[in-house]
Specification:
The chain is of the alpha/beta class. It has one domain: Alpha-Beta Barrel (TIM Barrel), CATH 3.20.20. The protein is built from 15 helices and 11 strands. It has helices at about 1-10, 15-25, 70-80, 105-110, 130-145, 160-165, 170-185, 185-190, 205-215, 235-240, 250-260, 265-280, 320-325, 330-340, 355-380, and strands at about 30, 45, 90-95, 120-125, 150-155, 190-200, 220-225, 295-300, 305, 315, 355. Strands 7-6-5-4-3-2-8-9-10 form a 9-stranded mixed β-sheet, sandwiched between helices. Strands 1-11 form a two-stranded parallel sheet. The longest helix has 27 residues, at about 355-380. Bound molecules: iron/sulfur cluster (SF4). The site of iron/sulfur cluster (SF4) has 13 residues, from loops. Iron/sulfur cluster (SF4) binds next to loops.
Length: about 375
């Protein structure tokens, strides 16, 4: 009971909004990272397979080759590389993780990492037969090790809107999984949310999804569908992206409305940062991003990348050790070039410490939102 409480606090679930807000302000930094610091990764994103049985309009991964992916034994060898020695937070995604045979064995290897503080998984949620036994056994192991386990299920609309985005009729199965997890949290995870990617195909229907989430008390997070090299969504941008589309105004209005409805400061800041990005003439990223300095991506063949959005492959653990790849002067210079050339045009909702300047922009905008009406009213009375 006490351990469960501790895990949920570590997983941020049980913190009061006030404590969460203080935590948010404490996790800020004076300057954005330059990308040149040689720090061991503390955050790892792990696409554990390229195999996927969804057919999403904003992603090409389901058309990619998924041969020659690592076995549990090879994975265990990769994780014994010192580059993983400081990893605190690890996220499993894909492809669709539940299509990986022995997924629980992969997760058990991850749970052996010496400094791990949290594990999370993103799934499309409709491979119910494979997903649920995995969730149950991994959560049992997480409890043994006192490591918070978070599940995120992707849901991109209500009913046929979700099916339109996924390219399959799977809303019923996905919503059933969401219901099962939500009603049996003590069996499957410490914390849980729904993730919705906002694109052309759903932007005008999101209120229905939001009402559905509210009605069932589901925690839903929205992110912009963006160009992501790893899943080749950069090649599909005309098909789904709102950034180049007449529906951009709908996206602006939607994210603006989220600022007001978010129930904690971090989410308010995140939605403000997305809104600010959408309205600004000169694009600027206000959100922090751990992948600029201490995040790493490793795929199902041991290939390493800095972030998934903009980074090319920087090397392979099948060929050499992690430190030689992650810290090589050539690759560090490459990471700096990502920061110099890509980050300000990236609105991926990766988290990280925001700069004081970004926080100031946010606070000023919030003050303006709360006071503009009274200012103009006062002005009209005086004049
Ligand atoms: S391009 Fe985006 S995801 Fe990659 S390091 Fe920059 S901000 Fe982070």
């Amino acid at each position: 009971m006490i351990d469960s409480l501790k895990r949920r606090i570590l997983g941020n679930e049980m913190l009061s909004p006030f404590v969460k807000d203080i935590k948010f302000f404490m996790k800020t930094r004076r300057k954005a990272p330059s990308g040149t610091a040689k720090k061991f990764p503390t955050v790892v994103q792990m696409p554990i397979t390229y195999n996927c049985n969804s057919k999403c309009v904003m992603c090409n991964i389901w058309k990619m080759d998924y041969s020659n992916e690592m076995s549990v034994e090879e994975f265990s060898k990769f994780l014994s590389d010192p580059i993983f020695s400081k990893v605190e937070h690890l996220g499993i995604n894909g492809g669709e993780p539940s299509l990986v045979k022995e997924l629980d064995q992969f997760a058990f290897e991850i749970l052996k990492l010496p400094n791990l503080k949290s594990l999370n998984i993103i799934s499309h949620g409709f491979n119910r037969k494979q997903l649920f036994p995995f969730l149950e056994s991994v959560y049992a192991k997480c409890k043994e090790k006192n490591i918070p386990f978070h599940i995120s299920i992707s849901l991109d609309g209500y009913g046929e809107v979700h099916d339109r985005v996924r390219g399959l009729k799977v809303f019923k199965l996905t919503s059933l999984s969401i219901k099962d997890i939500h009603e049996n949290m003590n069996k499957y995870c410490d914390t849980f949310d729904i993730g919705c990617t906002v694109i052309k195909q759903n932007v005008d229907d999101l209120i229905e999804l939001d009402v559905y989430a509210q009605k069932h008390d589901y925690n839903i997070k929205y992110r912009m569908g963006i160009e992501n090299k790893r899943i080749e969504s950069d090649k599909l941008k005309d098909q789904y992206s709102l950034l180049y589309d007449g529906l951009l105004q709908s996206a602006k209005e939607f994210f603006h409305s989220r600022i007001n409805t978010a129930n904690n400061l971090y989410d308010k800041f995140k939605y403000f940062a997305i809104y600010y990005f959408l309205v600004a003439k000169k694009k600027e990223r206000l959100l922090g991003c751990y992948w600029q300095e201490e995040g790493m991506t490793m795929d199902s063949r041991g290939d390493l990348y800095y972030c998934a959005v903009a980074s090319d492959k920087i090397g392979s653990l099948r060929e050499t050790d992690g430190k030689s790849i992650f810290f090589s002067d050539k690759n560090i210079a490459y990471r700096k070039s990502i920061i110099d050339n890509n980050c300000n045009s990236c609105i991926h909702d990766y988290y990280g410490k925001a700069t004081w300047k970004s926080i100031k922009t946010f606070v000023n905008a919030m003050i303006f939102e709360k006071t503009w009406y009274y200012k103009y009213k006062l002005k009209s009375i005086i004049s």
